[in-house]
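User: Structure tokens for both sequences below?

Assistant:
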Amino acid sequence: MTSLITTELVILDADQGTEPSAVIRALAAAIAEQGRANSADGLAAAAIAREEKTPTGVPGGIAIPHARTEAVTEPSLAMARLNPPVDFGAKDGPADLVFMIAAPEGAGKDHLKLLSTLARSLVKKDFVASLRAAATEQEIVDLIETALGLRETPEEQTTTTEAAPTATEADHPRRVIAVTACPTGIAHTYMAADALAQAGAEMGIDVVTETQGSSGTTPIDQSVIDAADAVVFAVDVDVRDKARFAGKPYVQAPVKAGIDDPQGLVRKALAEADAPNGHRLTTAHAADDSADAQSGSRESVGAHLKRVLLTGVSYMIPFVAAGGLLMALGFLLGGFDIPDYAEDIVLGNSLWNLPTEYGDLALGPVGAYLGAVAFQIGNLSMSFLVAALAGYIAYGIADRPGIAPGFTVGAVAVLMGAGFIGGIIGGLLAGYIAHWIGSFAAPRWLRGLMPVVIIPLVASLVSSGLMFMVLGGPISALTTGLDSWLSSMTGTAAVVLGLILGAMMAVDLGGPVNKVAYSFAVAGLAAGSVDNPVPWEIMATVMAAGMVPPLAMALATAVRPRIFSQAEKENGKAAWLLGAAFISEGAIPFAASDPLRVIPASVVGAGVTGGMTMAFSVTSQAPHGGVFVFFAIDSFLLFLVSIVVGTIISAVLVLALKILVRRGGASGPEEAKPAEPVSSNADATRV
């Protein structure tokens, strides 16, 4: 296993400016110069994006920016000792010791464990003091490799034991379980675990930690959980198997709180245990990983509904993506009349018995057969959409006990003709019923049956029964009316719809409004057909409009580079590819630094593109991919024309606004705020 750090990756007593992004870029450049990353910009962009989610500064003058990205080719650690220090968001002040952890997407567990070990060492005051006193780069490397256990040391290195104690160990006055997890699972996860364990030792409390990180998870024995007084969830992501802790008093906070105030979290957890009406984690509440950081606080109704609906959509999209692309491939190979032949061909023929009856547009008997197979697989995938949507909406409310009732009521909605509206209503109904049943205080002998038998059985019966007997008919009538209205939209009405959807795609670039428009298009994709192409037209409209903002920013930086900062010019180069792939987030750096000019310009251009695609009746059977799914887009040239027109309009508007409208009374490139680069790995699922 190669060394994580070398002397070339150590920067001592350097002035790297006053911004965390500048420090991150310097360390990323050092890693790339040693051949450990194929793109310094890509690594820096990923680390800066992580920094924007949660600052990585921790108490003690330390910061640990980190990223896991395809730009990294070899797990690496770079360190800078700064003079002057730079503020990375720690509550006790700026950081003078900055460690950048860079891991490739497929990093092996051995490397990830070493990186995690380093993160844990940084809570030890003597180790940190030695780093500050080191005179040379080699001393730094020696200290770090000793801490990682890669060099022998006369003194035994102390580490926090992560192995779960057994129920036979000596009892402690109080015991708290601490579960830690962060998005990358490399640094904060382990630092929070060690900080909580250390805080417990100082308080005379047994804190047992479970780190749900990249180097693996060792679940705490259930007997230890049962014997614990309370639980601390210091997490920024979902907790795996949270139902194990049902019935326990708990607090939930961001993972950084476990580093900044570990004793406070332990005290709050024990206070919940001591309070007669303290918060307990019920079976149904075990799904609620989006609780606010403050103990006992809950989401607003609107935020809760948005979360569960987007959970359903996010799990549904893979069915749409795979199914839509396969059906489009089936049309390409078998012709647009392949639906008339597909089932007969796949059941009655094979590669050794090719069909003799197929459509005139098929690419011969081989094309007809392969097209029929692709179409049928895609069609079957698409048939799960409503059930998957309902099932995972229910999952977002009630965790795993809600999945079966949700899928069942979704299937009933399909049978009743209630479509996606029925799936959404049925999923909410199944989820809340399952949540309600799970909130009952069941006897101990019945608890094991609740999530696997009782809750799915009763919730399925009630929600599906209501869909059959009460809700299905009216929702079906509403769905039929909505489909008829959409199918009848022509001329001006269709253009207006395109304008609205296009503007929604650009108004917040991947935010809630953008997601509403995209989810609306994806939800109706399965209803599209040759006879009813309107849902496909809506999908093409949303995709084309979403491509305009990043492409417009790329064009603007190419036409008038001198009015943009250096960082914006670099972002402009990346935005060409991001826009072509339908990743609207490629325009976020520009909107973040100059929202009053970039967003209005983007909205106008995207709205025009949306109106044009609807006017041209362009269709797309693929939910994502931009120009790279050209085979799934009918009238592809008109699709491109619409995008080009909108891109030019937005680019001209943003340039005019930047040149003519002075920011703060002055204009010019020297006044443009540098925007952070966006990784080419930006979220392409959009949910």
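Moving on to the next sequence.
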Amino acid sequence: MKSEIVEWLGQADLLLPQLVVDGLAANDRVKARLSVLQAAARHARDPQVGFDLTEECRAAGLDPSPLQTLVRSARLSSSGETIAATGLATLGAAIWDDMAAMLRAVRAGDAPSADRCQARLDGLKAAVPLGAADDLAAAQVAKLTAIEADDSLHRLIMDLHRALNALAAAHAQEWVAGARSYGLTDDDKHAVEAFMRGVEATRALKFGHPGLAAMAMRAGTHFTIQDDIGETDAHVVVIGVESDAVTVTYTDVHHARAKFFTGLLRHFSVQWSGLADKTTAKLHEDEAFYLVTGRFAYQGAEARDAFLEALGASLVFLIDWNKARKVLREFVSGGDAIRILDWAASRRFGHRAFLELGGAGLVTSAVRHAAAARIGFGERLEEALGREAAVDFLKAVLRFSAEALLHGNSDRLAKARIEEALVVHLERADTSLLAVVIRQAGLAREIAAAIAQLLASRRGGQSLDSAAIASRARRIEEKADRIALEARSRIAHMGIDHGLARLVDLIEQAIDELEEAAFIATLIPVGAAPDLLDSLLELCDIVIAGTESAVIGTAAAAEIPEGQRIDFEDALAAVMQLIEAEHRGDAAERATTTKVLTGSYDLKTSLSILSVAHPLERATDQLARFGHSLRDHILADVSN
């Protein structure tokens, strides 16, 4: 009654703050009711589609039970043109009531805008008989909820919401930590300050992009914080704060970004609803937005404020997110692009600086200036560098971009750092291939050790499964072949120094020799002379020592690009040991040959002993050649 008198006296301005509060509450309700209408239409078309409107309805102050009953009752007519549901008329009437509440608030502060919106609403009501009966044409449901249509109910709601926000901003009672506020208690202000503390902590990372204006208002038992994030009409977050819980209502036109947003708050126990349901539903093109609701239950203001601060800090990472994702997908997979963006958000670098400095142009320029010979035009980074190296490089690009703009450095410095990072990652690609060589040398050692084990068992008169050892050696040799083939392919594709290919080849040849020795060792007659077996064991020890030196030298060579002198010295020392092993192998093989040919051994024993000694010695030859090639690689690295 008092409000009617005040309005009759022409003092509706006095009612405006509360009308705006009521209008914003009606906005929350009508959006939830539109979600119910959409869910009913989907359920009618496909009863198997799941839905859960509980959190969305509760966040808007609605009882979810009758609304979910309405959805479950929705059926499509035999013609497929009409949707019927119990309570649809009641839902429609409530939607019109909510629209009237929003219009009342707008009319109190901006009568011309309200008149235009009223005319649009009248046209919609005349065209769509929503609220008249428990059935409605499916096409009319789409018309009401479409966001892309010239004029739909959804579009009108968005325009009224924008007008309400403008009125609330113009009639704010006070500023609280940078947020326009009305009717807040002291405790409310502490919560707003926490939220704004988060917003301000990362605000600089939007680098001049519009967005992040916040408004807070109290309505009954809870108050609401709203942030428009960026410029997109449907990109809004509304935060309801109650005595024991914070509800987050988030709308977005990009499903992937909505999912990303929930992930930014993964360290808090938030119960999210709507995201998974919207993912599985087959939405029409006109239904081009997603509404996600989260509920964070808390105990104590400290927990509440920590959540609000984290929430405020996360919003800047949603601005231009989809644009950044599309740019990164030019170089890596979509999943890895999101992984990079998540990393940049967690480290508080973000992606806006990357876009400001040129986005894809930053990367292509670095390739053109620093790696044109290694990375072809149009080639994806993950193909040129390897997946993880490409991801790491792009993380560095986002980091250097943010640091340059935050610290006021020149674009040229950022580009120079990015080019340097690309060179480093290319060197690491070389290093990753040295890791393949180390793995190959380890496989060579496995075969040599297996031969030594077999010979030692024969020497001690013990029984050992010879066939299993030969089979194991063959499997190792086949595995080594596959690894070498893949390494050669990478070397050819990436244009890496072909000296690395020679290292791979030489280790593979040593493995081939050892596999042959393992096979023949299983054929040595039982009871062979111990002194002959001792000679072969000596050769095995030399080969094992050689493979170990190959591992040590290659591992040290991999560290040389980092500039450690001790690694350089260790690598060269290992090379010398490989060369010495070849000399010792020659001497041991000749000693074995002399022993066989000057002794009185049977033919089978003599032939098998020599047939094992020769490939073992040839393995040391290959390892010595490997040592020489490794030395060349080391010296080339140092000179570069």
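User: Anything stand out in the second?

Assistant: The longest strand covers residues 245-252.
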